[in-house]
Specification:
It is a single chain. The protein is an alpha/beta fold and 338 residues long. It has two domains: 153 residues, 2-Layer Sandwich (Nucleotidyltransferase, domain 5); 171 residues, 2-Layer Sandwich (Nucleotidyltransferase, domain 5), CATH 3.30.420.40. It has eleven helices and ten strands. Strand 1 and strand 2 form a beta hairpin. Helix 5 runs antiparallel to helix 8, helix 6 crosses helix 8 and helix 8 runs parallel beside helix 9.
Length: 338
């Protein structure tokens, strides 16, 4: 069964064809990073316009690369939530039009569920139930995956997401957008114990995250040094910051796995590409006898292969969308599992 996936929730216009939820036949991504870098972050209006310009060619190339036509496609899976509403509407509108004219069934796919499914592409043996940490520019969640279409969020950020914190810390240190990869590179050169940064906790919610205080601590560290005429080594600050973020993410996830009786942990989302997080989580899982699954690096960020993969599982579960499908900027995984 071939599923055509379409993703446009932020600043990546993507389309892919996936067979039976696990085998990627084609995967095309048109990135806008160079343009948004001029502004230090994603400009929603620009992102929406670029999606409009790119989506036809991206979908056409995904089909061409797969050596398939729409006649070979069983269904079209599209990201409808959450994300930038203007960007989402471009993908949803295009998918609806394509489904209507081709007679193919339409499946609405939750973006976070798609990130979770990125591990099904990389690891054919992975099956629910398991615990998944999803960490990206807009999301930081600890999720119980009971089966391919049912989830329970047991931990989430109360303010900034981990990826957002990476970007803002990177900007403070003078790195370009997106900051995650520059922090990761600098951290490899720096001393991770050069600075003692805070580990914020959410009282009464042991698995929730709070990163705004950590972000502020980095900003204050850099600005106070500048006011005193002191010079900080950005590599040391980056290394200390990355160590702190990874310790927070790993500690909450491991504690949640122990409490829930899980022996299998997966990590997904853009921050899952961070080498410090991958190493720290692997060490923690090895220490506790847990099995860890990490997506291939090219599937960590936003892509349509993960949407097509999840679209397959949604489709075989009976999920369908009509021509009244709309984009939704904010929608919890808990809400689609009820």
């Amino acid at each position: 069964m071939y599923i055509l996936g379409i993703e446009s929730s932020c600043d990546e216009t993507a389309a892919a064809v996936v067979k039976d939820g696990r085998e990627v036949i084609s995967n095309v991504v048109a990135t806008q990073i160079a343009e948004h870098r001029l502004y230090g972050g994603v400009v929603p209006e620009i992102a929406s316009r670029r999606h409009c310009e790119n989506i036809y060619q991206v979908v056409e190339k995904a089909l061409d690369d797969a050596s398939l036509t729409l006649d070979d496609i069983t269904a079209i899976g599209v990201t409808y939530a959450p994300g930038l509403i203007g960007a989402l509407l471009v993908g949803v509108s295009f998918a609806k039009g394509l489904a209507l004219t081709s007679g193919k069934e339409l499946v609405n796919v939750h973006h976070i569920a798609g990130h979770i499914a990125s591990n099904y592409i990389t690891h054919k043996e992975l099956e629910p139930p398991y615990l998944c940490l999803v960490a990206s520019g807009g999301h930081s969640h600890i999720i119980e995956v009971s089966d391919y279409t049912h989830y329970k969020v047991i931990g989430r950020t109360r303010d900034d997401a981990a990826g957002e914190c990476f970007d803002k810390a990177a900007r403070t240190l003078g790195f370009e957008y997106p900051g995650g990869k520059f922090i990761d590179s600098a951290a490899k050169r720096g001393d991770p114990f050069a600075y003692d940064l805070p580990h914020p906790r959410v009282q009464g919610s042991e698995y929730d995250f709070s990163f705004s205080g950590l972000k502020t601590a980095v900003i204050n560290l850099v600005h106070n040094a500048a006011q005193k005429g002191q010079t900080l080594d950005p590599d040391d600050v980056a290394a200390s910051f990355q160590r702190t973020v990874c310790e927070i993410l790993v500690k909450n996830t491991i504690n949640a796995a122990k409490a829930g009786g899980y022996k299998t942990i997966a990590v997904a989302g853009g921050v899952s590409a961070n080498s410090g997080l991958r190493d720290a989580m692997q060490q923690a899982c090895d220490k506790n006898g847990f099995k860890l699954f990490l997506p291939e690096l090219k599937y960590c960020g936003d892509n349509a292969a993960m949407i097509a993969s999840q679209g397959y599982y949604d489709y075989i579960s009976g999920k369908r969308a009509g021509m009244d499908l709309n984009g939704i900027a904010t929608l919890s995984l808990d809400d689609i599992s009820k």
